[in-house]
């Protein structure tokens, strides 16, 4: 099975980060919840504390099939972390999956990752999708880059991640199990 890392900072959108963790684990994908703070407990945008299993400095940075950036006001903290940005760049250059939702696709745009790719993001962040073919679809999968729009598209985003890593049949099965489609 595949393995992903989801990166958490104070101010992350709880549903965007935790929906990915939940659905991917239901699909048998190994998920590491990684704190980018100096503590394992991270405070979500709506004051919901979440305890991550790992700290960024403790992860095996080469062991993942995908890195995932939740959105929310915390996206600025994700982008400010040089180590995480180096990891995102390295994954993109190595043709490994990079996924971002809500405001976080703007990070990918500013890093040049979206050039020539179809991408979507939270409304009003489109100007930050530098070089992308801007879409208003719930989710865009273009090569090894997956983007999504917001909290309301979190299930679609998580299912797209499952489909990319483990196939459409498993993604459809998980959607049916949660009475989504």
Which descriptors apply to this entry?
7-stranded mixed sheet, globular, 6 helices, 23% strand, 181 residues, alpha/beta, Rossmann fold
Distance linking N and C termini: 24 Å
Task: Give the overall silhouette.
Answer: globular
Strands side by side in the biggest sheet: 5-2-1-6-7-11-10
Q: In oligomeric terms, what are we looking at?
A: single chain
Rg estimate, integer Å: 15 Å
Please give the CATH class. Answer: Alpha Beta
Describe the structure.
- By secondary structure, the chain is an alpha/beta fold.
- The chain has one domain: Class I glutamine amidotransferase (GATase) domain (Rossmann fold, 3-Layer(aba) Sandwich).
- Helices cover 33% and strands 23% of the residues.
- It contains 6 helices and 11 strands.
- The chain has helices at residues 14-26, 75-80, 82-93, 105-110, 154-166, 168-177; strands at residues 3-8, 30-35, 41-43, 49-51, 54-55, 66-69, 97-101, 118-119, 133-134, 139-142, 145-148.
- The protein has a 7-stranded mixed β-sheet with strand order 5-2-1-6-7-11-10.
- The longest helix is centred in the N-terminal third of the chain and has 13 residues, at 14-26.
- The model has no long low-confidence stretch (mean pLDDT 97).
